[in-house]
Amino acid sequence: MIDLRSDTCSQPTHAMRSAMASAIVGDDVYGDDPTVKELEREVAALLGKEDAVYMVTGTMTNQVGIRAHTEPGDAVLFDQNAHVYLLEGGAPAALSGVLPRLLPGNRGVFSPENVSAALGEAHRFFPNTIPAPVKLLCLENTHNIGGGKIWPLAQLKDVCDLARSRGLSLHLDGARLWHATASTGIAEAEYAKHFDSVSVCFSKGLGAPVGSALAGSKEFIDRARRFKQQIGGGFRQAGIIAAGALFALRHHRERLLEDHEHAQLLAHGIADLPGIELDVATVETNIVRFGINSLPAGEFVEKLYERGLYVLPSGTDGVRAIPYLNISRKQIREAIDIIASVAEAHANTAGASKTSKQPSGSGY
Ligand SMILES: *Cc1c(COP(=O)(O)O)cnc(C)c1O
Q: Which residues cross the membrane (predicted)?
């Protein structure tokens, strides 16, 4: 089975497993796991922040970040397709009690004007106690539902400057920030410097088995540690898994370009197949999202699965495939052949009316 469902399906390498097996550990809740501390220091330095805190998932780092920036009843600006809003189990409402205000991003990218429009204008005739105060803006780079879209740095800066001038705090969901850096050569810290907090994942493209980190100022991370503990995120000899994350951070960032090449190979290999809607220019990093108009996406992926390719449906007409470190070039070629065989078998039933070049659905 060629598993391209997600880069989270990556398996730890032998070298990573031996680093984990020999990790020096302690009780992290008492703050004395040396491997966790080393990881936190390295991540903070890489992102140009004072401190960082290691947690079990990206969902936890994002949601603890949101909680630490807000109080219940505050409003938060999210892109309409943000992972933190759509794909984290309703956590902003359940854990932070915040009101989402959605921005009309295009593949996750929105403008300063979108932010101003969402914030509105205060006027002395209207009591400012009526609307929920907007405290935070969240931005995602690269953007998952946006197909691994990279935020242009100048636009990111303009959006952040505008939000800051209006008194908002800024959080970056950088689960795949590594991929933006691998592709553009712009250092992670150059993106991160515009934000008060940044969340990064070790368990996706970097290939570690578990974990994410939240970085920010010393004061902010101290506050975040309290909310991590509050939701049961205090873990004891976490150095065992932190060692995998540290290994991934040190050894697996450079190789991400190989995954980007594999994504290109896959995209170019299937873009012209009957019933497939894919603009190869939208594939910027490791995520390949394409539309399917010959049969429902759910059925299409079942047929791929029967032939040995495991990918995810996204909405009714979209498919997502993601190469990662255990996926070889040969497997990508096989994946193309499998997609071609199913697409061609159903070519006759392809609807002719579809004009969109991208799937409309949202999904993981
Ligand atoms: C996967 C992902 C997360 C959450 O990570 P988990 O470790 O699965 O909780 C957050 N943001 C984005 C953009 C992601 O792709």
A: none
Summarize the confidence of residues 97-107 as an average pLDDT: 98
Count Cβ atoms within 10 A of the Cβ of residue 79 and give its class: 0-12 exposed, 13-18 middle, 19 or more buried: buried
Residue 245: which of 190, 204, 285 has the closest Cα? 204
Q: What distance in Å separates the CA atoms of residue 263 and residue 107, rounded to the nearest whole number?
A: 18
pLDDT at 347: 84
Residues 70, 120, 163, 53, Cα dihedral to 10°: 20
Nearest CA to ligand 1 atom 14: 175
Sequence-distant (6+) residues with CB within 8 A of 352 are none
Q: Does the beta carbon of 212 sit less than 6 angstroms from any atom of ligand 1?
A: yes
Tell which one of 201, 202, 287, 322 to mutate to probe ligand 1, the residue whose CB is within 8 A of the most ligand atoms: 201
Q: What is the pTM of this model?
A: 0.95
Checking if the pLDDT of 362 tops 60, the result is: no
* pLDDT tens, residue by residue, 181-236: 999 999 999 999 999 999 999 999 999 999 999 999 999 999 999 999 999 999 99
57 lines ligand 1 (CB under 6 A): yes
Q: 145-196: per-residue pLDDT in tens?
A: 999 999 999 999 999 999 999 999 999 999 999 999 999 999 999 999 999 9
Closest residue by CA, ligand 1 atom 5: 58
One-letter amino acid identity for 92? P
The residue whose C-alpha atom lies closest to atom 4 belonging to ligand 1 is 58
SS3 content of the chain, % helix, strand, coil (to 5): 45, 15, 40
Instruction: Please state whether 33 falls in left (phi above 0), alpha (psi between -120 and 50) or beta.
Output: beta
Q: Which of 10, 59, 206, 231 to mutate to test the pocket of ligand 1 (most atoms within 8 A of CB)?
A: 59
Which pLDDT value is given to residue 191?
98
Is residue 59 lining ligand 1, measured as CB closer than 6 Å? yes
Q: Is 203 in the pocket of ligand 1 (CB under 6 A)?
A: yes
